[in-house]
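Query structure, 504 tokens:
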């Protein structure tokens, strides 16, 4: 049922049907972009706080899609006053979605958990997003009646393109410029303006004057609430980081690639580096891990060394201990991590300013993409894959047959490839043997071994898994260090072999 003919809209809003339809489609575009930002916010932040990003992504997406269907059904009861209903829906959505990041942070800090809140927010945001299209369909038909199929096509085109823009804006604009929680607040403010204000102005004759005043006041209060929350964002984020990482957070930055958090004293005592909430470097243990990765592979010719993922400079430091090293190329995708490793006093004390050594050349590029374009360069005597377990899709390419096959093509005759495959606890053992199988599928011979690492300072001691590899036609592989132990398969699980002799 059409609540007002096109002529009345033209007279009351002072705008022709064509531009009016364009404004509604523009509101659809913006609201879709903001809705996807809220969705990505719940996935990214929930995965960081709760761990297990695959499960978190599945839960948020499943709940949200289901809730969108419920929201579409509920919207049928609101189509008799679509402009008023849409303004209310967008105001609530802007408030809930904009505050979603801070809400998760606050629940983690003061309640110690946020899984239930994450699911509740996904459901509520999904219901509100699902109500948008039926209401927008009613509004656009109210401007000018047209074939339903054409109207749906226009709306969904604007909706999907908006989702694309929101999906790209989240990692490339909102996160690096505003940060995670503040980025959602910005999206909420844009949502309130585009969804509420535009529709209220365009269809201002639908609600009664008193209702119209209340709706305008509500939009203003939402914007004020989001602005006030933005002013307190840094306080909540600091409290959340202290809850996650301890009291001595010295550096925190959300780069386009990951969140980087450095804790500990400026002297280097208690230094820990967290990447996307995962402990990547613990000053008390990192030397044993890097030496176990580097030392066996450096036996033999090692004039040219390639480090894949060496943005922290710690592996390069161990490489430079060996005489005869002429060139080290370190490839890491995140320039923010490289800057931290070069300029933070505690970090430079740990890596001994290895990235500033004249023999070291740093390439800020995705390692897999760099390997694809490096086939024509001179070969390397040693390649070190300095990567622990991948986080989400960004790191998945570093465990593929293509990755190791391309790396093997850059090896000089008699060259060696060494891989750090992470801790050997629980699921880590399955991942370790998966990496070993991938290396063999890339026509590489392997020597799996474990080395002790971990202390009371950095958590429970857990053995770390490493792999030495060389092309099938190459020479003999070196032995792991004396502290290591060889590993072999036994019913799919690693078992200890004889302790191997030390390397000189």
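Result returned for the query:
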């Amino acid at each position: 049922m059409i609540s007002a003919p096109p002529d009345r809209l033209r007279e009351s809003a002072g705008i022709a049907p064509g531009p009016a339809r364009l404004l509604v489609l523009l509101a659809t575009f913006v609201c879709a972009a903001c809705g996807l930002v809220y969705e990505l916010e719940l996935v990214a932040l929930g995965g960081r706080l709760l761990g297990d990003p695959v499960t978190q992504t599945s839960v948020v997406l499943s709940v949200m899609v289901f809730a969108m269907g419920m929201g579409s059904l509920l919207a049928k009861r609101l189509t008799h006053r679509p402009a008023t209903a849409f303004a209310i829906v967008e105001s609530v959505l802007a408030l809930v979605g904009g505050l979603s990041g801070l809400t998760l942070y606050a629940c983690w800090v003061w309640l110690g958990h946020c899984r239930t809140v994450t699911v509740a927010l996904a459901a509520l945001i999904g219901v509100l997003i699902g109500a948008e299209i039926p209401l927008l369909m009613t509004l656009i038909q109210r401007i000018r009646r047209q074939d339903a199929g054409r109207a749906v096509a226009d709306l969904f085109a604007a909706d999907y393109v908006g989702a694309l823009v929101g999906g790209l804006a989240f990692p490339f604009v909102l996160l690096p410029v505003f940060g995670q929680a503040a980025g959602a607040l910005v999206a909420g403010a844009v949502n309130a303006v585009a969804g509420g204000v535009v529709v209220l102005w365009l269809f201002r004759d639908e609600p009664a004057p008193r209702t119209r005043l209340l709706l305008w006041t509500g939009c203003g209060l939402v914007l004020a609430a989001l602005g006030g929350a933005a002013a307190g964002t840094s306080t909540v984020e600091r409290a959340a980081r202290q809850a996650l990482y301890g009291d001595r957070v010295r550096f925190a930055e959300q780069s386009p690639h990951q969140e980087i958090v450095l804790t500990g004293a400026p002297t280097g005592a208690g230094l820990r580096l967290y990447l996307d909430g995962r402990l990547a470097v613990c000053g008390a243990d990192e030397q044993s891990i890097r030496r176990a990765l580097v030392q066996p592979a450096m036996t033999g010719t090692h004039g040219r060394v390639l480090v894949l993922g060496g943005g922290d400079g710690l592996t390069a430091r161990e490489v430079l201990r060996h005489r005869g090293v002429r060139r080290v190329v370190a490839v890491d995708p995140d320039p923010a991590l490289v800057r931290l490793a070069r300029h933070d006093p505690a970090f430079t004390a740990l890596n001994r300013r290895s990235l500033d050594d004249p023999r070291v050349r740093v390439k800020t590029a995705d390692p897999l993409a760099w390997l694809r374009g490096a086939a024509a360069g001179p070969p390397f005597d040693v390649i070190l894959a300095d990567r622990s377990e991948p986080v989400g899709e960004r790191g998945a390419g570093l465990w593929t047959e293509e990755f190791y096959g391309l790396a093997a093509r850059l090896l000089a005759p008699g060259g060696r490839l060494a891989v750090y495959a992470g801790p050997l606890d629980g699921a880590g053992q399955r991942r370790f043997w998966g990496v070993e199988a991938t290396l063999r599928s890339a026509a590489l011979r392997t020597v799996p071994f474990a080395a002790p690492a971990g202390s009371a300072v950095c958590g429970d001691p857990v053995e770390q898994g490493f792999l030495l590899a060389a092309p099938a036609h190459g020479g003999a592989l070196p032995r792991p260090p004396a502290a290591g132990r060889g590993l072999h398969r036994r019913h799919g699980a690693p078992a200890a072999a004889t302790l191997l002799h030390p390397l000189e």
